[in-house]
Design brief:
31% of the residues lie in helices and 19% in strands. By secondary structure, it is of the alpha/beta class. The strands form 3 sheets. A 6-stranded mixed beta sheet has the order 1-2-3-4-5-6, sandwiched between helices. It has a 6-stranded mixed beta sheet with strand order 7-8-11-12-13-14. It has a two-stranded antiparallel sheet with strand order 9-10. It catalyses: Endonucleolytic cleavage of RNA, removing extra 3' nucleotides from tRNA precursor, generating 3' termini of tRNAs. A 3'-hydroxy group is left at the tRNA terminus and a 5'-phosphoryl group is left at the trailer molecule.
């Protein structure tokens, strides 16, 4: 479920980033958790259904520390702790950039969040390989030559290596229990300590005894197009990529380290992705962003509360014409100067 598809701040039609992966009886994951995520769960599932969705959460992954990607997190964690009070359960594992731990530690002085924290760079491919070989679980923050490498090289937040190893083993156990083989973070070009993530499902046997290959999902977080995303997305079943700006606003995309719609599609095409889902649109596009339909043969535009079943991926590109017909009178909403200035100030502050 795509709970939020907007950038920067909530608007009338778009909440900010959150993706809920429902694995049914096995549990669920949340990728990013902007403000209002709990409200979106309530809109999607109802009050009781939202409580059940929160109870089922086993892992929450946060891409970077901009407010529109994590400020709904503490509310979700506190509610889960309350709902499971007196019930035997394991803490939820929060995977995020290291500075996020400072925010969560401060909040825990007010309310129990009942969670384990794991740095995103401890879940890179290098770190997972190190765990398997019995080494230290600490990967490089950025690959050599990354444009962001010189911006952030170390952290002043200490992390005990033995606790990192234990939490990484706990995450491996959780993934196995919910039917996943991998959760791998990779660095992207946006801000210091910004990541994307690869999630791979395990193979399974269907009701008639046939072996079903596991799907592979990639989420870019906020990012410029970069080789790390292309490599991580190689032959993925689905790539959910940010597409903040229309193609004509390439200079603004470059200035703010975001992607245009065509750039996002090009990333998926270069990686031979089966289906591309575009999200994280500027709030200047209230319902459907400005797009070039000639590039949309394997691509879909996400909208808030959109439900995607892996079995229905083949029909995703066919949905766009119906959206355009439904919203033809509201394709672009002009922002007045004050709104644009406020958005620019907020981006600079973040």
């Amino acid at each position: 479920f795509i709970l939020g598809t907007g950038s920067s701040q909530p608007s009338k039609y778009r909440n900010v980033s959150a993706i809920f992966i429902d694995l049914f009886s096995r549990g669920s994951l949340l990728l990013d958790c902007g403000e209002g995520t709990l409200g979106q769960l309530k809109r999607r599932y109802g009050l009781d259904g939202a409580d059940e969705a929160v109870r089922k959460l086993r892992c929450i992954w946060i891409s970077h520390i901009h407010a529109d990607h994590h400020t709904g997190l503490a509310r979700i964690l506190a509610l889960r702790s309350k709902l499971l009070e007196g019930v035997t359960h394991e803490p939820v594992i929060v995977v995020g950039p290291r500075p996020l731990k400072r925010f969560l530690d401060a909040y825990q002085r007010l309310e129990d969040l009942d969670m384990e924290f794991l740095d995103c760079r401890s879940t890179t491919a290098t770190s997972w390989a190190s765990l398997e070989s019995g080494g230290e679980a600490e990967g490089s923050l950025f690959t050599q030559g990354s444009p962001m490498q010189s911006v952030f090289k170390r952290s002043d937040i200490s992390m005990d290596n033995s606790s990192v190893l234990l939490c990484l083993k706990n995450l491996k156990k959780v993934l196995s229990e919910i039917g996943l083989n991998d959760l791998i973070s990779f660095p992207v070009v946006h801000c210091p300590q910004a990541y994307g993530v690869v999630i791979k499902a395990a193979e399974r046997v269907n009701s008639v005894g046939e072996q079903i290959l596991g799907w592979k999902m990639v989420y870019s977080g906020d990012s410029r197009p970069c080789p790390e995303t292309v490599e991580a997305s190689r032959d993925a079943t689905i790539l959910i990529h940010e597409a903040t700006f229309e193609d004509a606003l390439i200079e603004e995309a470059l200035a703010k380290n975001h992607s245009t719609t065509k750039e996002a599609i090009d990333v998926g095409s270069a990686a031979y992705v089966y289906r591309i889902v575009l999200t994280h649109f500027s709030q200047r596009y209230p319902k459907i962003p400005v797009i070039d339909e000639s590039h949309m043969h394997n691509t879909c535009i996400a909208f808030d509360l959109m439900s995607i079943n892996m079995a229905d991926l083949h029909v995703l590109p066919k949905v766009l014409p119906y959206f355009k017909t439904l919203f033809r009178d509201e394709m672009v909403e002009d922002e007045d100067a004050d709104d644009v200035a406020m958005d620019d100030l907020k981006e600079e502050a973040l």
